[in-house]
Amino acid sequence: MRSDPQRLSFSIGARDGAARAGVIQTPHGPIETPAFIPLATKGSVRGLDTDEVAGLGYQLILGNTYHLFDSPGPERIAAAGDLHGFMNWDRALITDSGGFQVFSLAHGGVANEVKGSGRKGDHGSEVEITEEGARFRSPRDGRELFLSPEVSMQIQAELGADIALAFDECTPFHADRDYTARSTERTHRWLDRCVAWYDEHGPSGQALFGIVQGGTHEDLRRESAEAVSAAGVHGLAIGGTLGRDKEEMAAVLAFTAPLLPEEAAKHLLGIGEVDDLLGGISLGLDVFDCAVPTRLARHGVALAPSPETRWRLDLRKGRWVGDRRPMVEGCPCPACTRHDRDYISYLSRAEELTAVRLIVLHNLTYMRELTTHARSAIEAGTFDAYRAAVLAGSPPWTA
Amino acid sequence: MRSDPQRLSFSIGARDGAARAGVIQTPHGPIETPAFIPLATKGSVRGLDTDEVAGLGYQLILGNTYHLFDSPGPERIAAAGDLHGFMNWDRALITDSGGFQVFSLAHGGVANEVKGSGRKGDHGSEVEITEEGARFRSPRDGRELFLSPEVSMQIQAELGADIALAFDECTPFHADRDYTARSTERTHRWLDRCVAWYDEHGPSGQALFGIVQGGTHEDLRRESAEAVSAAGVHGLAIGGTLGRDKEEMAAVLAFTAPLLPEEAAKHLLGIGEVDDLLGGISLGLDVFDCAVPTRLARHGVALAPSPETRWRLDLRKGRWVGDRRPMVEGCPCPACTRHDRDYISYLSRAEELTAVRLIVLHNLTYMRELTTHARSAIEAGTFDAYRAAVLAGSPPWTA
Known about the structure:
- The structure is a homodimer.
- Chain A has helices at 50-55, 65-70, 74-79, 83-87, 99-107, 110-114, 149-159, 177-201, 218-229, 246-256, 274-282, 292-298, 341-349, 353-380, 383-391; strands spanning 9-16, 19-26, 29-33, 35-37, 60-64, 92-96, 127-129, 134-137, 144-147, 163-165, 207-212, 235-238, 265-268, 287-289, 301-303, 312-314.
- By secondary structure, chain A is of the alpha/beta class.
- Chain A has 2 domains: 9-290, Alpha-Beta Barrel (TIM Barrel); 298-391, no CATH class.
- In chain A, α7 packs across α8.
- At the A-B interface, α13 and α14 of A face α13 and α14 of B.
């Protein structure tokens, strides 16, 4: 692991089993872990201004290199200083490398494919992948775009994130072992090129995380964890497919997480459902980004303490007519303290923008409460009990 | 005019020519006039929670009887207490009677038709208008619905608005004089039925405004103003077509406004562009509702001090790339104090929800600044100079 405290340091303040409560220090302030990371994919968190995201207690958000490369382009963001300046966000920022999105284009069905539920090979012809990098067409306007380890690092340098992610090949679930092994080796060669670019050009305020691949294969995950740890990065992320379902994901994470160096900050990419996040925390993972909390809001779905519905309260259902309860009893969010299910359900079915906003505020409050209370439980040595209570249906703030 | 101070009182604190600065007292607090009224057509102001609308300084918002009748229905709103309770809005509320929307369905092209730019007779078969009322199909789900003076009053009673508007026939621009005359007479008969219903059933906390029709015909407007004033209402609104263009509107308002009783609160329905609003104020009109400020935001258009573009700044244009100025220099709104045109233009073109929200906050701040400063100018006896400065391109807060 690279030690570079002016760029990033990670200290662990408390442990409870494998779980830990830590602080990642960045040039844009601290990130108390475990932490959920809201997505600002295209430069805004859905429906919120950045000061509101900070007001909810978030210290880190994620911008997406692929989307911001496509539009508005890194030059335009650099002209505003960096992505912090462009968005007016003065806390910490991490950028995805673009690998996930490019290989989703190549393999079809984006997240579904990585998660094992997509079809194979849709739109594969849109992307040409070579050892050099990936050439593809903008799905927005058809322009030809090219991403490689060097280009991704260059863009992320222009975006000025506190944490850049190495450009990886995100192996899909349906790939066989042989493909996954060769793909993981390419990810390691690409990581070396990222590190080489970074050694020469890396911004003084930016740290670099490597991405551990290897699919669902323990030996490949082990090789990858060793290669990435040795490559000279400040932290590690777990990427790629974690299997067909939650059981397989739990098993893959159970053997992968311990392979990562104890002292490193560890990011689980793209995972952020309530149970999965608690599972990741129990394995010593520190930060988690996920589109689900903000995406659900668009479809009228609020997070709620109901394991039997995967923590989803579908406000578009007709059954909430006349229901005077808040989305979740006791929730401190601005929506639950002011409105009932009857009203929010009506607004959501009527496609009123205000509904999306209210549910985003709720869902992000819910996730922040979850990680804040998980952190307290780790400090108190009661994380297992906290996790069990939430998995049994307690709200995150009372467990 | 009806005097009923526990329901509504209007006092004029200052005059400057025909313009006046007043206060409408309602059971849900005062409305300082002149006032712009944001639309909460379906129960929310676009993208904002009601506490934010109050935070912008608004004391009165408008809900729409036609839309709320269609969905969620008055029973459901009454079950929450009233529309105040349903939305959690504790300031004053006015409800449109539904007449405008029904007759827009009948005559095609909603606002365009009333304003003279629509085509005649589209969808006319959808609405059956008789002396009893209007029978039509829900454009949402095809259910047959019926609105009449009594039904509209009943719904508005259930909505619990501080101010209800009488159910009128909203004569379109293309109607000839004879049709307009007969239509206006029907509006008066319907007003008598509204008042009769109200005398028997009107909620103790609700005032009733009548609507002056008569199209672009001075004699018809005169007859209508006299009939409405004599009908036993607490205030008056000017409705129906005001002509083909801004010149004709100014002329129609110039002869219509003085026909209304001096002591009455006067509402100009559906008009709220910057120049029109100042014109209305100069004629002694007090409150103005309009969809434009919130609707423009959805299309990426901010209000700005540029008479040559009708006070519109189109942020979807490419020319704002790299522009570090706020939407409007000196604007106190949360968007202008935090973001530049470059960012908001990008967000709007990217269809990010946050863009709509930021521009709504700006546009409603702009309108509130306009009426607040108009009020101060009236109190200072400088309204003509204020109006001239704004019409010449000064921002509302510096003129």
